[in-house]
């Protein structure tokens, strides 16, 4: 296994800085319009995969030839700005969706508690702090960090104390050690998911638990339902989407990424997180089909893995 602390960067461009190289090799990356390297393994080899919605601005979704991660290229800069998650984004969370979210977070916390005794928990991308409040009331010692200043403000108000603002992989704070670190639907929004998992690993105690939930690229029932309802394939990227996904994971690629970043004992199961009745019904059917086919087909999944002792 490669060193899990390795940070992948863009592959070296042969001849780019060599004045003796032929002119066609001295041309820079921009003029050749090379795809960006895989954000999970760093491979420069990829091919077009999946559908994008009309008006995607020349962006495509690529599949890495080596680790099979699917990712958006180029990265839409608006998707990586904190302002994308402002007051309008959080209003439904603390309005019509709150009761359903309480049930969701309690169910998710029970999954964590089946695998870890109560202790110190760090929630990365804590949103409005509802999960932290539920975990705290259940007896956990909780900390949170949120990329969005608006989300951190709401979480701080809910918890009655400050919540950190920023990107965990870029900040020297919340060093732990923690017994559990949760990433509930965070990795798919990051330009590079691997450094976040590195940051998570070093903050866990030996034997500590990381919990990673992401959408499932193998969500075939949801794809079929979308095609029937809309008459076109479910797009992997759509310009102006409320929650653009920059990386798309299957159970296989998620497990491989966790192992490559130094985690072990990986377990992946369904994350039944749909809030609307229609999506819950589709996902219930997907869960039944998953049992029959022995292939995870639900709309989202959650991985549990441990830092080695």
How is this structure best described in words?
By secondary structure, the protein is α/β, with parallel strands linked by helices. It has helices at 23-26, 29-32, 87-90, 98-113, 130-137, 149-159, 193-203, 220-230, 251-260, 277-293, and strands at 46-48, 60-64, 70-73, 120-124, 141-146, 164-165, 178-184, 204-215, 247-248, 264-270, 300-306. The strands form 2 sheets. The protein has a 7-stranded mixed sheet with strand order 6-5-4-7-8-11-10, with helices on both faces. Strands 1-2-3-9 form a 4-stranded antiparallel sheet, with no helix packed on it. The chain is globular, with a radius of gyration of 20 Å. The model is unreliable at 1-32 (pLDDT under 50).
Question: How is the topology of this model organized?
Answer:
Blueprint: H1 23-26, H2 29-32, E1 46-48, E2 60-64, E3 70-73, H3 87-90, H4 98-113, E4 120-124, H5 130-137, E5 141-146, H6 149-159, E6 164-165, E7 178-184, H7 193-203, E8 204-215, H8 220-230, E9 247-248, H9 251-260, E10 264-270, H10 277-293, E11 300-306
Parallel strand pairs: 4-5, 4-7, 5-6, 7-8
Antiparallel strand pairs: 1-2, 2-3, 3-9, 8-11, 10-11
Helix pairs in contact: 4-5, 8-10
Give a short summary of the structure:
The chain is built from ten helices and eleven strands.
Helix content: 25-40%
Number of helices: 10
Q: Please mark out the parts with pLDDT under 50 across 5 or more consecutive residues, or reply none.
A: 1-32
Query: What's the CATH architecture name?
Result: 3-Layer(aba) Sandwich
CATH topology: Rossmann fold
Distance between the terminal alpha carbons, to the nearest Å?
17 Å
- Strand-residue fraction? 15-25%
Q: Please indicate the count of domains.
A: 1
Which structural class best describes the helix and strand composition? alpha/beta
CATH evolutionary superfamily: Vaccinia Virus protein VP39
CATH class: Alpha Beta
């Amino acid at each position: 296994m490669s060193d899990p602390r390795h940070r992948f960067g863009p592959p070296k461009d042969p001849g780019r800085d060599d004045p003796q190289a032929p002119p066609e090799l001295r041309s820079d990356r921009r003029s050749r319009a090379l795809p960006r390297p895989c954000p999970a393994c760093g491979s420069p080899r990829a091919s077009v995969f999946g559908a994008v919605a009309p008006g995607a601005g020349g962006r495509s979704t690529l599949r890495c030839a080596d680790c099979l991660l699917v990712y958006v290229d180029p990265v839409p800069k608006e998707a990586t700005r904190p302002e994308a998650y402002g007051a309008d984004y959080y209003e439904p969370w603390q309005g019509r969706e709150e009761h359903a979210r309480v049930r969701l977070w309690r169910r998710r916390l029970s999954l964590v508690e089946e695998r870890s005794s109560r202790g110190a928990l760090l929630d990365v991308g804590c949103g409005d702090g509802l999960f932290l409040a539920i975990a705290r009331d259940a007896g956990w010692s909780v900390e949170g960090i949120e990329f969005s200043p608006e989300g951190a403000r709401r979480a701080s108000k809910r918890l009655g104390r400050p919540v950190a603002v920023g990107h965990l992989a870029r900040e020297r704070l919340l060093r732990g050690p923690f017994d559990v670190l949760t990433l509930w639907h965070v990795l798919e929004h990051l330009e590079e998911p691997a450094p976040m998992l590195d940051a998570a690993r070093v903050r866990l105690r030996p034997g500590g638990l990381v919990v990673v939930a992401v959408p499932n690229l193998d969500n075939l029932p949801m794809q079929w339902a979308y095609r029937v309802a809309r008459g076109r394939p479910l797009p992997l990227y759509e310009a102006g989407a409320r929650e653009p996904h920059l990386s798309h994971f299957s159970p296989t690629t998620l497990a491989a990424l966790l192992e490559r970043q130094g985690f072990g004992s990986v377990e992946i199961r369904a994350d039944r997180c749909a809030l609307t009745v229609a999506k819950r019904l589709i996902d219930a059917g997907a869960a039944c089909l998953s049992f029959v086919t022995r292939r995870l087909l639900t709309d989202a999944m959650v991985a549990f893995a441990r830092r080695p002792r």
